């Protein structure tokens, strides 16, 4: 039986072609997929790092056709390899991302691009990249389960599962370069929506999903994952700052031009819109800080005006408006206590006025008394 070397070059030629098909969005049937899986499996299990045995290329591509091929394993200690193959996969991902930046992602860094163009391009390329990476991770699963797992177990901080590697390289090569532009485009769209425009919310939800996914895999695989740290640092902080700035201006202008009762209705509307915004395209973890920020701007900053209006509404028996205001502050114990104090003062005053009205008639008329 003739032995021919199972070389990395032969394996990589086939694997590289398969990866190119995947990233090119070309259709891949089950047989093609399994051939690539078997290729990685054969290389990882049948080649020693120090002693590569010979297998014809035809046997690699058609693993069942091995009647004339014999593969001799080395000791179990040497039976799993992957360093060279992993390095080539990593280099392929890096080169692919560099090509994306210089070609398809140019719209993101182009100063003349609209917010929609920037976000549409970024999300389209991210989703294509991540889908392709999952496919590649699938047929490299044997590499993940054995060589990668062992390297991580030995404390190697720069070795990751193939999918995680793809995510990390996107973060380092694409996200770190374009994140500020993408975030500002998101904030511009949200501002336009607050001003009454209809926007494509899918662009924003796509960016949120991207930021969360990028945070799941830590840079150092020995450290615990904090999935939302990129989302919060890159988007949520800026979003909350923009929210406060936008509503500080709007609330001051609205109060100058409208009565307080209409302002209270405006607060209700804006809070509903912000909660919907969280449900439609933001991460749910944002809701608490978002609503707290809005309430601080809408209510706390204008509390003296609202508290004074509460007393007016009591005197005018505006029950619906009173209910609206109380509902808005019902979870703020200090504000509720102040409203209750005003209510008790009002009740006491009304009682004294009612008594004073009948004092003189009562003194002269025992029946009234």
UniProtKB/TrEMBL annotation:
Is Disulfide bond tagged as a keyword?
A: no
Recorded family membership: Belongs to the cullin family.
Q: Where is the Cullin N-terminal domain?
A: 12-358
| Gene Ontology biological process | ubiquitin-dependent protein catabolic process
Q: Which UniProt keywords apply?
A: Ubl conjugation pathway
InterPro entries recorded for this chain?
Cullin, Cullin_N, Cullin_repeat-like_dom_sf
- Name this protein carries in UniProt: Cullin-1
Please give the SUPFAM superfamilies that the UniProt record associates with this protein: Cullin repeat-like
Q: Which branch of life, at top level?
A: Eukaryota
Pathway membership, UniProt:
Protein modification; protein ubiquitination
**MF terms in GO:** ubiquitin protein ligase binding
Q: Name one Pfam family in it.
A: Cullin
